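Note to self: the last two entries modelled the partners one at a time, which told us nothing about the interface. This time every component goes in together.
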Amino acid sequence: MTTNSSPQIWLYDTTLRDGTQCEGLSVSIEDKLRIAKRLDQLGIPFIEGGWPGANPKDVQFFWQLQEDPLKQSEIVAFCSTRRPHTVAAAEPMLQAILTAGSRWVTIFGKSWDLHVTESLKTTLEENLAMIRDTIEYFRSHGRRVIYDAEHWFDGYKHNRDYALQTLEAAIAAGAEWLVLCDTNGGTLPHEVSESVQTVICQKLMTKDGGQKTIPQIGIHTHNDCDMAVANALAAVMAGATMVQGTINGYGERCGNANLCSLIPNLQLKMGYSCIGEHQLTQLTEASRFVSEVVNLAPDEHAPFVGRSAFAHKGGVHVSAVERNPLTYEHIQPEQVGNRRRIVISEQSGLSNVLAKARTFGIELDKQTPQARQILQRLKQLESQGYQFEAAEASFALLMYEALGARQEFFEVKGFQVHCDLVEGKEASSALATVKVAVNGQNILEAAEGNGPVAALDTALRKALVNFYPQLASFELTDYKVRILDGHAGTAAKTRALVESGNGYQRWTTIGVSTNILAASYQAVVEGLEYGLLLHSQAEAALKT
Amino acid sequence: MTTNSSPQIWLYDTTLRDGTQCEGLSVSIEDKLRIAKRLDQLGIPFIEGGWPGANPKDVQFFWQLQEDPLKQSEIVAFCSTRRPHTVAAAEPMLQAILTAGSRWVTIFGKSWDLHVTESLKTTLEENLAMIRDTIEYFRSHGRRVIYDAEHWFDGYKHNRDYALQTLEAAIAAGAEWLVLCDTNGGTLPHEVSESVQTVICQKLMTKDGGQKTIPQIGIHTHNDCDMAVANALAAVMAGATMVQGTINGYGERCGNANLCSLIPNLQLKMGYSCIGEHQLTQLTEASRFVSEVVNLAPDEHAPFVGRSAFAHKGGVHVSAVERNPLTYEHIQPEQVGNRRRIVISEQSGLSNVLAKARTFGIELDKQTPQARQILQRLKQLESQGYQFEAAEASFALLMYEALGARQEFFEVKGFQVHCDLVEGKEASSALATVKVAVNGQNILEAAEGNGPVAALDTALRKALVNFYPQLASFELTDYKVRILDGHAGTAAKTRALVESGNGYQRWTTIGVSTNILAASYQAVVEGLEYGLLLHSQAEAALKT
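The predicted structure of the combined assembly is written out below.
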């Protein structure tokens, strides 16, 4: 248990920058905004948003956050030191960072002499000047600076004196944090420990008369030796107070330190304070949310947050764990928002359902028969491949249905799709026909589209808009498809997620089928239905 | 580099026993035999084969190994101590172990008082007798004994004196190894370190007159805190000389310590001797072999052996790593049998393209006009939403095309798809028609499927298999779909990735279109084409 007196470790998330270097991961600006908001809710103090200037997407991302800022977290812009033999004020790259408008800026510079001469092709002296100038420039514009010492541990191993000089340059220029980076991921915990201790013990860490702010130490690790999390913990034990990492350990090559492992280790095992206890119970959901948004299959065996992390197989084991969870569980799964799973007979997650219902303003308790009914339906659907973590609107519809309160706006009778593609012709046509009933009246509509799902969506809207003119303001803002059992190839089950919006709210719905069109269509239909529900709830609220 | 003078660490593989507890993993006897042989080749000294008696499959496995024994490795039978208040010689469970015929036996017993009273429901005294009796029984039958101290670290934390007594019982009875197990996986490296040191420093570790064999210490860890590998290394640094783990870290919940990470860390980073240098270069292949046999997708981001472990993005980065690999690689990938991969992506420069071409055996230089042509085509396709970092086979086809060397196996003339879904009816039917030409001959084929892509795939194979019988061995092993510009909703562009295999190789192809079916189809078609290309290259190689 953490208390107010637990020493604080500052979390620094770089999912949106270093995490996006992960092979196979790509995100839109919308995706980045959704993830940033979720990290904000999770209580991560620093969120590295990207490198505006190097990447046009990141410029827009920072602008959008100026319009609609995060509640608690500091969004941080990331940038290298100025180029050799230039003037910081004249560097467009640095201008772009100022324009991004974040209070905090992370500057990374070279610690390893080899990189200065081989990659930057400049002198060791000039590199020190680059670090100093860049940090001073941002300080003079009122920014607070975190200094990332790239390749710190390799530099320290090869030329310790020079590596320490780079930190001195950063301190002199006014950096508030020095983050030691194991950029190549080749360092082991005992080496991290020794190096962090040395940095902290060096006189450069002692006050020189009370004028200068004494920077704190951070750690940034990669998983190339399977040591990212262990190295970060070793650094903390040696005195580091900031830990950089990514959700689910996403990152280049073998990934970055996984915050989903770091946070519970620091907070539950080592007694540090990172995020609120209640926020910690959202960790599993946050992990799955991010994996849905970036469209990568979650690691079922992930420590703490994986689906198998608290799975127990039959026999003695199960009865022992039910009598005394301590016998086979190193923490209580609920502390990180995960749950115990008895692999033979699935165990209840009734409290999850109740908690979820509460988020939709529905008060249920364990005695309500519908609560068990919802749980059963949920389990049944989940075994079919549904996953409601990122599809809360579909889950809400499911709850209303169980409570007998699902409004019927329309009924879908069926659909047909026809696609025709002639090789070499760019435009393939898709034709969709839908049949729906509204208030007992059957409507048949057809539409064309540049793809089968677009054609279906258009046909459905044509059929419904006369009854529900508010449909005109709905738009589909995102659409994702994932194949569930990859082994089955194209005959596998498909999960479609559709995000819809009405200009001021957004919601996500889900469909599952072996037929990719049926799955998509189901999600589109529920998206429209939920939008109509929100509209009618808003109207009802206005009347009262 | 390890030399004969490097201290030896004894590897103990439990993939075939603890590894098979992994959710989603199941193996036949044949699978187990194939894996055991591969581990033998890899030079693993101890291979835990299973628990004969508890599992009928394991009985047969040990019998088959008696017929056809391993070359170097010791196969080890695993078993618990006798039940409370029984006589070892009268226990059928222990008889089955003798029948299995292995020279070495691993006996696991309880170290944690809570488990003795809660799970075994017996007295602390009786548990000590169970450990002693069982080991003595096997010793009296000429077996050599490894003692696994289950729940060691929890027992040590809760009742240190009793935990140490259980080890004393094992030593007195003649165990040659004491393996400290973190069964629940909740321990951190500094705790492992302290506990191992204590055990080694205890007087029970000192000679009592030269009569008794002094056991050595082993470590068995689980990954529930993301610490399995770090904990094993911490134990080794504290004096343990045996490390237990599994290939790819397979195991219950979050898995066991991953030998594919442990071995290179111990051998390349810490200077211990585990397996031969040449065997180490087979590590990546062994990892992938085991994942194929157990039919689990390999972790692309796995340290050392993952496909992304030595992947490089971005121009400057790539030219730096080619000039001096040390700058961005913590070891040489070849040391573990992996290879550097130049990832082709948005940031690609000409040097990436050239490096990539080389990996396909195509020598280009900066002056070759086709090199620039490939780069241009690449950038053009990427701006349309193609992404080749995960679709190397499509990139290879693109290169062959630019070089005028793309073989035409077949030509697709067009396709049609028809889907019909009646709401409430579970099975939706999809009908696909394709028209292809092979050697100037047109073929029209139709097929049904449980989804439109499956129907297309089936129709295409029907059309081609008479010309290319090798198609019958191709399978689609994974299929992923991603919507590119989420803003456009269902009218957005779709990117499909298809992974195909022929039993010993895998390759990935890509398709992009606003029509999800056209994108999928394109990837399926290129997947078949690339498979045919591999086949014809293999045939050509055989002829020369």
